[in-house]
């Protein structure tokens, strides 16, 4: 193949894939030149197929290279399928793993959007949406991104504007893994909404409570003073009676 001056890049690609339904393996070998398709190896005829006019010369040379053809045939038909099968067996537990999410309804304030939050699911190939009467809705809905959790699972949320809600019982939050038929459906129920919001105290009650506390303190203080005065009076009367008794005894 005649080459002009400058830098030339020759790219090689080889591998195999498996049909999970039939279990049959398919291999491929190809070359690229300067970012464009150049040659592809036909595993049935064991010959090179040129993909550009410049590749015709290389085809004639490589078709006669029996050592290269034998090496590529063994690589694609034997070595690659064995390694692919081994990798699939080792990774099957991860590839087939499916962890369902925990779904919650969250709301910051009574007027803010209702967030349907799913967490702890795996894999991340999932979708979630709001539906009304069984049909997906888009108006008043805002989708969040799928985010990773520390333990390797994922979380996501989708918000529904409260002002767009008419009859709460007609709305549902739907979670579904891609390619799966099963769905996790959560009915929009006010009793299931979790929130940290608490109503602010009524400012009118603050002076009333303060006034009640002051009145109680006044009553307590008045009672204490009255009790103290009463005790002093009784002590004085008892002292006078004792003095009179002593005087009478001395006169006798």
From TrEMBL:
InterPro entries: Ig-like_dom (IPR007110), Ig-like_dom_sf (IPR036179), Ig-like_fold (IPR013783), Ig_C1-set (IPR003597), MHC_class-I_related (IPR050208), MHC_I-like_Ag-recog (IPR011161), MHC_I-like_Ag-recog_sf (IPR037055), MHC_I/II-like_Ag-recog (IPR011162). The chain crosses the membrane at residues 204-227. One of its GO terms (biological process) is immune response. It comes from the Eukaryota. SUPFAM superfamilies: Immunoglobulin, MHC antigen-recognition domain. Residues 101-186 form the Ig-like domain. GO terms for cellular component: external side of plasma membrane; extracellular space. Keywords: Glycoprotein, Membrane, Transmembrane, Transmembrane helix. PANTHER family: MHC CLASS I ANTIGEN TRANSCRIPT VARIANT 1-RELATED, MHC CLASS I-RELATED. Belongs to the MHC class I family. This is Major histocompatibility complex class I-related gene protein-like.
């Amino acid at each position: 193949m005649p080459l002009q001056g400058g830098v030339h890049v020759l790219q090689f690609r080889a591998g195999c894939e498996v049909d999970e339904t039939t279990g049959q393996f398919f291999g491929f070998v190809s070359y690229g030149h300067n970012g464009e398709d150049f040659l592809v190896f036909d595993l049935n005829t064991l010959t090179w197929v040129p993909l550009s006019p410049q590749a015709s010369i290389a085809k004639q040379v490589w078709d006669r290279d029996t050592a290269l053809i034998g090496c590529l045939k063994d690589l694609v038909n034997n070595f690659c399928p064995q390694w692919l099968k081994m990798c699939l067996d080792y990774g099957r537990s991860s590839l087939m793993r499916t962890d369902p999410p925990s779904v919650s309804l969250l709301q910051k304030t009574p007027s803010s959007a209702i967030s349907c939050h799913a967490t702890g699911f795996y894999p991340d190939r999932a979708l979630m949406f709001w539906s009304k009467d069984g049909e997906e809705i888009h108006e008043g809905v805002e989708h969040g991104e799928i985010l990773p959790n520390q333990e390797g699972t994922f979380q996501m949320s989708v918000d529904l504007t409260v002002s767009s809600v008419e009859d709460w019982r007609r709305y549902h939050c739907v979670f579904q893994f891609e390619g799966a038929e099963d769905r996790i459906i959560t009915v929009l129920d006010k009793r299931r909404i979790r929130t940290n919001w608490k109503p602010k105290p009524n400012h009118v009650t603050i002076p009333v409570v303060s006034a009640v506390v002051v009145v109680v303190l006044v009553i307590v203080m008045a009672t204490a003073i009255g009790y103290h005065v009463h005790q002093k009076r009784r002590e004085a009367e008892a002292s006078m009676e004792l003095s009179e008794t002593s005087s009478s005894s001395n006169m006798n």
